[in-house]
Design goal:
- The structure is a single chain.
- The chain is mainly alpha-helical and 121 residues long.
- It is built from six helices and three strands, in the order αβααββααα.
- It is 65% helix and 8% strand.
Length: 121
């Protein structure tokens, strides 16, 4: 299975791990219950899916969960999937869509230029 191909609910589980670091499944379930009203079984099912996909490693005692994939890796993969699916693989079309909808301040333009320049290095 693809550890970077995670559904929205699985991403919520991963988000807790990225914020909290290695922690128990019980702790993850508590946070997701508080934030989304999920029951423990829902959270455990999603953790098991993430384990099957290779995104989480489980260890004992206490069902400790560790993220095996970084948030940045998932963001990069999701962005590329979006570009390929919606913008025919063209990052130019993505940027045109993002930038065409609102005015940018000079400061924002300068920041974008700096980011692009850093990519060229």
């Amino acid at each position: 299975m693809d550890k970077l191909n995670l559904g929205d609910s699985e991403l919520k589980v991963m988000s807790v791990l990225w914020q909290e670091g290695d922690t128990t499944a019980k702790h993850i379930a508590g946070i997701l219950s508080d934030n989304y009203g999920w029951n423990v079984n829902t959270t455990y099912t999603l953790i098991k899916r993430c384990i099957k996909k290779g995104a989480i490693q489980r260890s004992e005692p206490n069902f400790i969960c560790r993220a095996l994939v970084s948030q940045e890796e998932v963001q990069r993969k999701s962005t590329m999937d979006l570009v390929n699916k919606i913008f025919d693989g063209s990052t130019n079309k993505l940027f045109a869509s993002l930038l065409g909808k609102k005015e940018l301040s000079n400061e924002q333009i300068d920041r974008l230029k700096k980011m692009v320049d850093e990519l060229d290095e």
